[in-house]
Amino acid sequence: MKTRTNTYLESKPRFEILDGLRGVAALGVVMFHIMECYPYAVTRWVMPHGFMSVDFFFALSGLVIGYAYDDRWNRMSTWAFFKRRITRLQPMAVMGVLIGICFFYYSGGPTFDLIDSAPWYMMLLEALLLIFMIPLPKSLDIRGWGELTSINGPIWTLMYEYVANILYALFLRRTGKILLGIIVAFCALLTADLCLQLNLWGNLLDDNFQYTVNGGFICNPEHVYRAMVRLMFPFTMGLLLSRLGRFISIKGGFAVASLLIVAMVSTPMLTDLSPLHEGVFELLCILLLFPLILSIGTGSRLQGKRATQICTFVGQLSFPLYITHYPVMYMHFSWAETHMDSPLGTHILVGVVTILMCIAIAWACLKLYDEPVRNWLKENWLKR
Asked: Residues with Cβ < 8 Å from 310, sequence gap 6 or more?
């Protein structure tokens, strides 16, 4: 008879295409971040919507968590669920903070005007707070961008991933399809509030974030709202899709879904037409394109050994790459700012080397740290 003490051993077949799509989206984030330091006239053309990969990650998370855990609650406690999620997420979160410490003082300059004057003990204190997923108010910013995670920017999304896990374990897992559908519809309205600048609650005041879902990485009421909206529709939509089980099976599903992601993140910014055009584009991507991509990725099957190898590699790399790349990007920002007049070929070479460095660091962290630590936790913590 199976008991709660060994439910950690129970695993379901993986959706390998979804793993591959997570990797494609992670590469989109890296490309977006590497272009952030260049003038808008350039960045509006090169992967300008890479930030939407974050929203896609939340959608993937909702679908995968629903698939993996919805039918296990009769033999798994809430604490057992949290232990599994901590084992999956926290080791790389810690590594992301440690890498942020290592690169912090190497990324000073005009872009990050607070770094040179940041006391070492304050950096270590904030790193400790981030390890425990405690957001930092703007008053404690030690980089100069006002982020709630000054050591390593993308960790803010992991904080909200934990929020989604808590909401799922305490509430969403108990909802039926109809109630969940109502929640999804309400969250879609909130997404439209951001994208169309409806300003339903009168709280959208930041002029730098209008007609867009972007934002959420600052600790103030507006950006907390933005982060929750970015989290809730994709996550609940993915969860509902997993329960409905209506997927699309097509030949070459991985290639088609990957091209859809690439098309989304590489579409030029539409703000030159009008801010509303940009907002409509983002809204349609989130409300319509995300469910289509997830449905294709879940319903289709990989064909051929090569495709399986690619999905496995980029899928394994995706989370380590996402959570460790930004400290390297900080250095790239500082270099680009002081070498903006360098030849185009130099910028391309440095950009390629930076991306390769990020991939190498992520792979090393995965194989030398993340996998061994998670295996140890499974044997010595989850079993108990």
From this structure: 20
3-class secondary structure per residue, 37-86: CCCHHHHCCCCCCCCHHHHHHHHHHHHHHHHHHCCCCCCCCHHHHHHHHH
**Tokens standing for 225?**
């709202």
Q: What is the DSSP letter of 202?
A: S
> With contact defined as beta carbons under 8 Å apart, do 158 and 93 qualify?
yes
Rounded Cα gap, residues 43 and 32, in angstroms: 8
The 3-state DSSP class for residue 226 equals helix
Distance in angstroms (rounded) separating the CA atoms of residues 43 and 268 = 9
* Tokens encoding 303: 């064909």
Q: What is the pTM of this model?
A: 0.94
Please state the φ and ψ torsions of residue 147, each to the nearest 5 degrees. Answer: -70, 150
Quick: pLDDT tens for 75-131. 899 999 999 999 999 999 999 999 999 999 988 777 788 898 899 999 999 999 999
| CA neighbor of 78 nearest in space, from 167, 183, 175 | 167
215 phi/psi in degrees, rounded to 5: 115, -175
Backbone angles phi, psi at 218, to 5 degrees: -120, 145
